[in-house]
Amino acid sequence: SPPGERYEYQAEVSRLMDLIVNSLYSNKEVFLRELISNASDALDKLRFLSVTEPGLLKDAVDFDIRIQADTDNGIITITDTGIGMTRQELVDCLGTIAQSGTAKFLKALKDSKDAGGDNNLIGQFGVGFYSAFLVADRVVVSTKSPKSDKQYVWEGEANASSYTVCEETNPEKLIPRGTRLTLYLKRDDKGFAHPERIQKLVKNYSQFVSFPIYTWQEKGFTKEVEVDEDPAEAKKDDQDEKTEKKKKTKTVVERYWDWELTNETQPIWLRNPKEVTKEEYNEFYKKTFNEYLEPLASSHFTTEGEVEFRSILYVPAFAPSGKDDIINPKTKNIRLYVKRVFISDDFDGELFPRYLSFVKGVVDSNDLPLNVSREILQESRIVRIMRKRLVRKAFDMILGISMSENREDYEKFWENFGKHLKLGCIEDRENHKRIAPLLRFVSSQSDEELISLDEYVENMKPDQKDIYYIAADSVTSAKNTPFLERLAEKDIEVLFLVDPIDEVAIQNLKSYKEKNFVDISKEDLDLGDKNEEREKEMKQEFGQTCDWIKKRLGDKVASVQISNRLSSSPCVLASGKFGWSANMERLMKAQTM
Ligand code: ADP
Ligand code: MG
């Protein structure tokens, strides 16, 4: 074949290939999972585009993936009938790393190195196309995009710093569309080129791929064939039984090769929830979202009535690390299908409000049009109903974690996603009733453990009407505030709001189970033990002192008053009834700086 045009890899790619090969050495077989997942992505892309551009399907071949192992020569070919790549795409996609899976891998590798290194985790990451070089020393990608009338061949070798691209000239190798990968296995890895081995790997790693995967398998059927009688036998028969000479048959196995469907193509969400095991849900989660940890919870449901859809939702075990004070609604966490066709995972609050954007899952609807666009999504009544139901289900799932016998689960949830729920108090009035029972706080009596509002309410004094809180910048400073004295004396519990967002969240909630939230640092705090007589006396006795102090302090304070709020401290700085709390003031100051 003519020499192709030679290109250098982007510098990071060579380094990445090295890393992949070295860190995944013990888990080489992931290469097949990666290449099948690329084939499946390519089929998804084509199926999606063809909804609006049926012309793309020109030579209407099926949507499938075929894998053939040539044992004698140690070659594996993986062919898909997906979207393929143009010449430019070949260079952009296979010569640079801008792609999700690989970027995530590099980050995971770095994180795990920083954390002391656990190579096992790495093996479970999406590492993408380059994983082909785990087992192959030469990889040829022959691909035809419907956007181009030519087919192109990319060719690369392990440990090389460059690759070539040329046009496919061999007419026998032309394909109507899609991509064929040919892996020339390394000497020690030729064992992968066995039909049974391939079959096992497909079943093991790719059972959730929603396109048929065929593997090239040797088959056999038995048949009866007539045989000429052995003259010696015949003679013996004649002597012993003197029977008539008859035709004899024998059973033989006829061998042939054919494609065999190797995966289960029914998507897991279409199955009956009663027949799906927890392990299967978790596997689906890990494979679909490239996660290496099990989710904290999952929920599989079908809704009926006005709008019908099926869904599996998950709560991840961890919030994505990084800029942790910014909640990013564009997470690719929800995969939307319409009649099993993958439509999009690119949402911006259409299916879940931003504060619940950590929820992952798949949603499959029969009621949306296949060519659903962003505009349709934003305006559709159906989507609004779906969103409502999804949000409700997500809350049920989180509530489930909070009621789990294993208290640690919810602690983990809260640590990762507590601030999301607090944001929900501010942004989603409609769901206050669902969010409030999920909130957790430290209190003056909880000994630094987190408690729920229900636990607080249960612990209220018989005549206590309100829920008390104090906002502070730490548990220690909350504990030491003089405002606590009287409440402590009366054994009344006080919530400590020590996260900057806590106070705003609580103020948005206003009340819980008809009990108002009351800031104990505000001037009009009424603990229901007013003694008017005595207050009058005190005012008379100390009125002049107050006037004197107010004069000395001038504008620094709004007023100086006698109060019954303290028991051991002589005085305290309190906020006005309608003013900001000291904590809010601190926050506002920090923001304007
Ligand atoms: P990722 O799948 O995370 O994007 P990969 O390294 O696996 O990263 O793949 C890189 C890119 O190469 C893909 O995003 C896709 O554009 C392209 N690609 C890989 N395999 C195929 C294929 N079989 N058909 C079409 N495009 C492909
Ligand atoms: Mg990939």
UniProtKB/TrEMBL annotation:
Signal peptide: none annotated. GO terms for cellular component: cytoplasm. Residues 226-245 are annotated as: Disordered. It comes from the Eukaryota. ATP binds at E34, N38, D80, M85, S100, G101, Q124, F125, G126, V127, G128, F129, T179, R374. Keywords: ATP-binding, Chaperone, Nucleotide-binding, Stress response, Transit peptide. The keyword Acyltransferase does not apply. Residues 232-244 have a biased composition (Basic and acidic residues). The keyword Transit peptide applies. GO terms for molecular function: ATP binding. Belongs to the heat shock protein 90 family. This is Uncharacterized protein. It comes from Flemingia macrophylla.
